[in-house]
Amino acid sequence: MPLPSSDRADVSARLREALLAVDFTADGLLELLGAPAYTALARSETVPALRATRGDGALAALVRLFLLQDSVPHARVADVLPVDALLDSGWLVEDSKGAAGAGSGLRATVDVRPYGGPDGEDWFIVSDLGCAVGGAGGIGSRGEGVVLGVGGASTTLAGITVRTPVASALDIGTGSGIQALHASRHATRVTATDLNPRALHCTRLTLALSGAPEADLREGSLYEPVGDATYDLIVSNPPFVISPGARLTYRDGGMGGDDLCRSIVQEAGARLNEGGYAQFLANWQHVEGEEWTERLRSWVPRGCDAWIVQREVQDVTQYAELWLRDAGDHRTDPAEYAARYDAWLDEFEARKTRAVGFGWITLRKSGAAEPSVTVEEWPHPVEQPLGEAVQAFFERQDYLRDHDDAALLAAHFKLAGEVVQEQVGLPGAEDPEHVVLRQHRGMRRATKVDTVGAGFAGVCDGSLSAGRILDAIAQLMGEDPVLLRDRTPAQIRLLVEQGFLEPVGR
Question: Which parts of 243-333 fold into alpha helices (H)?
C-alpha cells in the first residue's frame, strides 16, 4: 500500500495535534483498553482491544482506525481528525466497501502507534499495517519490503544506549525510525540509513508525527551511504537473523552466517570519534570446535574497548522454528514448511553451527594500548534503561586500567547502592558455606566472595583506604597483613569491575 506523503509537514503537525487532543497516547490507550488488552496488542492479538473499543468515543474510533486497521465510519472521525487533508496526503483512504459520502468508511494506510519517550514525551511510530510488533502475525507473508514498528528488540536497544549529549549520531538500518527518534533527544545531528527506501519514508513520518527534528536520511547498505564520516554514537538493530538466503529484508542480512553482524561491528571502529560508543543487537553462531567467546573477541575493532553480553542461546532447531513462524511459514502447505525447515538445517550443518546466541555488543573508542574486552553470558533479568550502567561499566574499565594493585590499596571505595549480602549454608552451622553479594539495580549481578571480601565490602564507606581496611581485617582474623594485601586486590578489582564497589574521588 502506498505510504502517506512525507512532504506535508503541516498535515503531520495537524494530525499530531488531533491525536494528542483525544489522548491518543501510551497512557491514554492503557486507560481506555486496560492492562490485559493493552499488553495483548504487544503480542499482535487484537480481539481484546476490539472488545474494549465498542463504544462511540473519539479515542476508541482512532484506536480502531490506526491500531486495529478497522474500517471506521467517516462521521465518527470527521469532528476529530482533519479528514480531507489526511485523505489528500494519503494517511487515510476511503473504504472501497463503503458507500460514498459522509457515511462511508475510512481506513488508515499505516499503523500509527503511541510510544512513550523516556522523559514522558508523546511519540508516534509509523509502520506498515499489521507490522507494529515483531512477527507474531506472520509478517513475512506481507512482502519482503515491509517496515516493522516497535518490538522487544528495538526497545531493548533503546534502553541500553548511552544517552550523553553528542554532536553526531548514526542509526544503521533505521526501519521505522525508533532509534533515530531516541537519538534526536541528545544528538545535534542524526543520520539514519536503510537499504529499504520504504523504511526511510516511515522514519521521516515517525519523526514528523512525533514533533522531532528532521534527520539526514540516506539509502544504502550498512555504512556505505555515509562514506568515511565519523560519529560520536552509532546504533543498530540490524537484520541479524542467520538464515539461508536474504528472503526478508527487515530481518535477513543477505550475508552468510553471522557475517553481517561481524561486519557491522568490525567496521564501526573506523567510524567512531574518540570516546564514542557503538551499540548493536546481534546474533552469532556457536560453531563446533570453537569457543563462542573467542569468535566474538575477534570481531572487536582495534582501539576499542568492548562489552559483549550473551542474553540467550537457542539450538538450531529452536532458532529455525522461531523465524519460520516469524515469516508465517507454519501456516503454509506442510510440505513447503518442511522444505524450508530442511533448508535452514542444511545451512547450519554446512557451517557446523550447533546453536545461535543473541545479545548486546557495545564498543567504545578508547584508543587504549591494551583495550578492555569483556565477553560474558548473562541471561538473568536486568533493570532497563541500562544506558547509565553501560557508561559506568566503561568508566570502571578506565579506572582499573589506570590503577595497579598498589594504587588500588591506596584508593578509597564505597559500597554501591542497593547491594545486599546473602549467606548460604546449612542451618545451625557456625560459618556460611559462602557469601553472595547481590545488586538490585542495573545488571542485578550476584557474585560470591570470601569472608575477607564480604567484610571488606561491608565497611567501605569512602573514609579509609583499601589497604587500611585490610590491615584491620588481618588484625581481627589473626592473619599476616602483608599476605592479605597480596591476595586481596584481585577480589577488589572484580568487585569494582562488576559495580559492587565505587571508587571515591577518582
Answer: 259-266, 292-297, 316-326
